[in-house]
């Protein structure tokens, strides 16, 4: 099978696996009906579904797995449907069917209020990472390719995944439900884990209405709870690597995306935490004293940023890195979410700077690599009237990845790890963004109208599109965007 990976030596070969992807893979890995039943019982996403156990009685294992796979997908709404749909879905899950019952819960007088606060945190109302769109066969393909990876990047350590914002009880507020499930999957499959991420700009509204001091207190306690959880998990979970017992969690993204994606009025990139909350770098670093003093054995600390190919943004990131507590950060991670049109010279300059950092003792990783081809990149790559096949698109992608690989090798940078983000064409964060933007701009009316961005490590969509699908989608679209859709589908339809 074709794999669109970088041809660069690295001891870590990782991939990003969301909690939803891991659940779907867990279903596929079940070897018996009893094992499938156990999965359902321990999965709060679907164990509430009426008649879910009875529905698979008498089924053969393959049919049962496909049925549960679909039930899991059906438990979520598309995130593009908006907040109202997500809220309705969440309340339906909790069995709240009337305004009166809702008010009762809000008033904390409902006899199920504590139960609701607990289980609500375990329910994913909106789909992400194309969970509802991915088909069973594509996840089977990913499962068969797990030997490609010796490391898994899991995102269930983020603050809004851990803190139950609905629960005010100090003893239950930090809930590592998703992290534990994801780690157990990695342990079962013999993979080490990079734990992502202890500081993120998305707070899940946990910080809403809080003062700077309150936010810092929340972060400090969350960091302590997370580091203690990591140490405890590693103490009882070891995997064999080259004859040596190693901890499951061997890396933690302490910081993720501190620097803004856009520029301020002065034309400069800025520190998001200072801009949004008034928390300057020394104050932010004070929140991580516990992580430094209590660093788990065998664990590497990373600072992770995207778009380091941008010269100006990269310099701002380097300035921010220099302000971190000495000895805290072991590795600078470059995400490298790029398009097929990425300028090669910008990558050369980026890795020349990485080499200077590495010579001064900083490790360098590519932490979230993927490459996509958006609809509007087609004419930029192939000309405005190109009649090309999807195969040619992948050939161009392969060529670009080879060029980037050569740049990295020639730079002298010795990467300590490479991790891939969009693992298949269907599990593609680029596709998610393209679909969301097209929906917001009223270019399409359904998320599936754009079927691929060719962004996967594994090119599962090479033969996805059929003529009848194109014709149906064109008939469902308004006249203004038909030409645009057709241009894109000409790319997807050719074999």
Question: What structural keywords apply?
Answer:
single chain, 495 residues, alpha/beta, eight-stranded parallel beta barrel, two-stranded parallel ribbon, 21 helices, 13 strands
Describe this structure in a few short sentences:
By secondary structure, the chain is of the alpha/beta class.
Q: What is the multimeric organization of the chains shown?
A: single chain
Q: What is the CA-based Rg, rounded?
A: 23 Å
Can you give the mean pLDDT?
87
Low-confidence stretches: 465-471
Task: Note the gap between the termini.
Answer: 17 Å
Summarize the structure in words.
- This protein is an alpha/beta fold and 495 residues long.
- The protein has a domain at 20-127.
- It has 21 helices and 13 strands.
- The strands form 3 sheets. An 8-stranded parallel barrel has the order 1-4-5-8-9-10-12-13. A two-stranded parallel sheet has the order 2-3. A two-stranded antiparallel sheet has the order 6-7.
- Helix 1 (19-29) crosses helix 8 (136-144), helix 1 (19-29) crosses helix 10 and helix 16 (344-359) packs parallel to helix 18.
- The longest helix has 25 residues, at 212-236.
- The protein is globular, with a radius of gyration of 23 Å.
């Amino acid at each position: 099978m074709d794999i669109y990976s970088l041809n660069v030596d690295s001891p870590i070969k990782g991939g990003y696996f969301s909690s939803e992807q891991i659940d779907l893979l867990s279903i596929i890995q079940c070897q018996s009906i009893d094992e499938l039943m156990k999965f359902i019982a321990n999965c709060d996403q679907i164990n509430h579904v009426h008649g879910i156990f009875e529905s698979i009685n008498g089924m053969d294992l393959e049919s049962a797995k496909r049925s549960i796979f679909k039930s899991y997908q059906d438990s979520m709404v598309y995130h593009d449907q908006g907040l109202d749909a997500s809220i309705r879905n969440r309340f339906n899950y909790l069995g709240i069917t009337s305004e009166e019952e809702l008010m009762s819960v809000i008033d904390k007088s409902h006899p199920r209020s504590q139960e609701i606060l607990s289980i609500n945190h375990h329910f994913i109302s909106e789909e992400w990472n194309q969970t509802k769109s991915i088909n069973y066969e594509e996840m089977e393909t990913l499962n068969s390719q797990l030997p490609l990876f010796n490391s898994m990047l899991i995102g269930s350590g983020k603050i809004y995944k851990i803190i139950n914002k609905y629960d005010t009880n100090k003893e239950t507020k930090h809930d590592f439900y998703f992290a534990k499930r994801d780690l157990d999957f990695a342990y079962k499959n013999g993979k080490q884990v990079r734990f992502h991420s202890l500081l993120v700009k998305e707070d899940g509204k946990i910080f809403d209405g809080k003062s700077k001091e309150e936010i810092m207190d929340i972060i400090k306690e969350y960091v302590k709870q997370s580091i203690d959880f990591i140490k405890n998990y590693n103490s009882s979970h070891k995997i064999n690597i080259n004859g040596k017992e190693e901890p499951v969690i061997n890396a933690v993204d302490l910081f993720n995306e501190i620097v803004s994606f856009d520029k301020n009025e002065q034309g400069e990139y800025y520190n998001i935490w200072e801009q949004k909350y008034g928390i300057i770098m020394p104050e932010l670093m004070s929140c991580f004293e516990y992580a430094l003093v209590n660093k788990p054995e065998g664990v590497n600390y990373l600072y992770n940023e995207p778009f380091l190919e941008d010269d100006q943004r990269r310099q701002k990131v380097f300035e921010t890195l220099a302000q971190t507590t000495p000895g805290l950060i072991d590795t600078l991670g470059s995400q490298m979410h790029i398009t097929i049109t990425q300028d090669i010279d910008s990558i050369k300059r980026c890795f020349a700077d990485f080499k200077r950092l590495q010579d001064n003792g900083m490790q360098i990783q590519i932490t979230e690599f993927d490459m996509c081809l958006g609809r509007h990149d087609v004419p930029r790559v192939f000309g405005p009237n190109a009649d090309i096949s999807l195969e040619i698109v992948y050939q161009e992608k392969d060529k670009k990845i080879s060029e980037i690989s050569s740049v990295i090798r020639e730079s002298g940078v010795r990467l300590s790890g490479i991790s891939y983000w969009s693992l298949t064409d269907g599990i593609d964060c680029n596709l998610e963004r393209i679909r969301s933007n097209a929906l917001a701009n009223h270019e399409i009316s359904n998320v599936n109208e754009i079927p691929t961005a060719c962004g996967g490590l594994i090119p599962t969509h090479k033969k996805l599109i059929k003529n009848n699908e194109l014709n149906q989608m064109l008939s469902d679209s308004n006249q203004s965007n038909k030409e645009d859709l057709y241009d894109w589908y000409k790319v997807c339809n050719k074999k």
